[in-house]
Please model this.
Amino acid sequence: MTEEIIIAGFGGQGVLSMGKILGYSGISQGQEVSWMPSYGPEMRGGTSNVTVIISDERISSPILANFDTAIILNQQSMDKFESSVKPGGTLLYDPNGISIPPKRKDINIYKIEATNLATELGNTKVFNMLMLGAYLKIKPIVKMENVIAGLKKSIPERNHHLLPLNQKAIDKGMESVQKV
Amino acid sequence: MEKELRLMKGNEAVAEAAIRSGADAYFGYPITPQSEVLEHLMLEKPHERTGMVVLQAESEVSAINMVYGAAGCGRMVMTSSSSPGISLKQEGISYIAGAELPCLILNVVRGGPGLGTIQPAQSDYFQSTKGGGHGDYRLIVLAPASVQEMYDFVELGFNLAFKYRNPVMIQSDGIIGQMMEKLEIGPQKQRRSAEEIAKQCPWATVGKPENRERNIITSLDLVSARQEQHNHKLQAKYKEIQEKEVRYELINCDDAEYIIVSYGSSARLSMKAMDILRAKGVKVGILRLITLFPYPTKIIQELTPKVKGFLAVEMSCGQMVEDLRLAVEFKKPVEHFGRVGGMVPSPEEIVEALEQKIIGG
Amino acid sequence: MAEITLKDIIKEENLVYKRSKIMTNKTLSYCPGCGHGTAHQIIAHTIQDMGIQEQTIGVSPVGCSVLMYDFLDLDIQQAAHGRAPAVATAIKRLMPDKFVFTYQGDGDLAAIGTAETIHACNRGENITIVFINNGIYGMTGGQMAPTTLAGMPTSTSPYGRDTSMMGNPLKITELLAMLPGTYYVTRQAVHTPRAVRQTKKAIRKAFENQKLNRGVSFVEIVSNCNSGWKLPPVKANEWMVENMFPFYPLGDMKVDGELVNK
Model:
């Protein structure tokens, strides 16, 4: 199994940390993992993206032009990455902030109102956990116990009291994702 | 003992490896894309963990001269920077090579020339492998292609540096430095005691006891005949390194008709290209350089009669390909492909380059 | 009256000066009359008197004193031009119990190495810096230094230093005294026995201070360069007293971390 994912949005939406949790989840179940962010001035306040690869085998290129899954969190990223999803691949997005929805017919498109749901849950910071939950519902590539282990490793210990809230958000994301 | 697994950036892995390998000191100056090395070290409080000295210098120039000072007292010392900063360090590196001191230098290469870009590149190959500063000298140059190798090459680099009393460079790039991968980290090693250092490095300037001659660390000798002898001695050392320390990885080369010669992140990109080409039925293998100096000339000469051509893939306008051509001696076609200025070639572009330049050419 | 021979004079009880055992037998490479040899002797005697040969590491510069390691029987590392304070920083940080000193000229310390000097002083590195200021580049043949006086001719200011074009002589020692990282800053000379005694006290204090771990101890020695100045030794010293001392006045600037009011 090899899953090649791009997560793209604004800096501050939790793009990098979502990738990190996925990465740690993969490690927790003994898989190979790579996590390659965009870096430099473009990540300060601007768009931010990370390529995450989880595989049973040695990972070749950590930088890719085409992806099995794209998780899209803003319009610029939609413009940039919709065409990069492999035919038959998956595109997951939050309609909030998307003015031109994806048009491709040869891929599986899913959406989740993650921004609104995060507000309902009372903490906008769990936005990325809703997206993660939605993704794991579509592609259960990592077991939930390993996601929790991954969360514990990526979140600093002083914030471990937030673990139940994050888990709740993941569950909510799994419930709320819709096929387009 | 269970393996300790982490998800870490290449730059952070180097910092952690420095602490765990029992390094005595790190001196550096921030520059993108490698500032995580100093940041991680400061965060990890190595002065408490092992007593390791970590200091942010006022410049790269000062940092490399601090390295020179620490190396002079036989300490395991390293610095890190990225291309423009490495250029600033070259005078100091030349002194370290001339005075035959061990040290480790990490270059997380970015695109140039000048201030260039902060995005990844491999355009410092000439600088790393042909000396870099003034005078006839060489560094041992290691090219990690993964976060694990970033970690592992710290200890390997220190071992080689002390074995040959020569500066060792890890030539990485923005991709390997910035990406996170699964990393298996080793146990904490004890730093050497002052007595152990004095024993291992009888040449070190640690204070002259009554019973030995004073130790002098210098690269100066105004008597030309002696300076010539010193140069010959250095060259003999580099020759020994070329004979004993060549490291590389052969991937699918047994049946290969075409070979991609590459290193670092380019080799990773090439592996993906190889998968695509193999799926099409093209027999491609990869020679991944692990040491850039010494260059694996011998294995290239062994492969040359067996293959139809070589493609050097590197993020430069064609630097490493010169050494490849020297090794192949025009017996088979050798072409170059690379993107530069911080642009990273896609695996598909590498596929196309091999098809057009070597197979079709 | 019996004739007095050399044998009658060379006796232990007549001894007024003895070369320090920290000095090697190597003939000094300095010009006759140059202050470097005296400054070396003072450092050698200080280390001998303190009994710290085994604990001392010296850092030599680029300049006339690049070969300091030939003359002092100590472990010495030779630094790139201007970088001695960075080299000394690392040595001291790694071996805090040792005595570490740099020995630098004006071009080395106050031109090419200004950043290293200021930042080592600003960090309060617990080292001793001995600074020889003769207002000229001696080794390379008498070019203008950062401390060359206004109007003073050198090979690169043949008609005298024109400050409107070539900048002003740099009082780096005054500047360093202002930094919180310096603990002891003084300016001395070695042209008379009295000055030598004063300088010896200053160097001793600068080395003793390393036991306190309070920051940099900095000793400037205003000296001559009769070759570069193109004057015979005695005349060079007279010229120094008349021209250098008014601009670079001798005395303590900072003692025990406190600025000296004058």
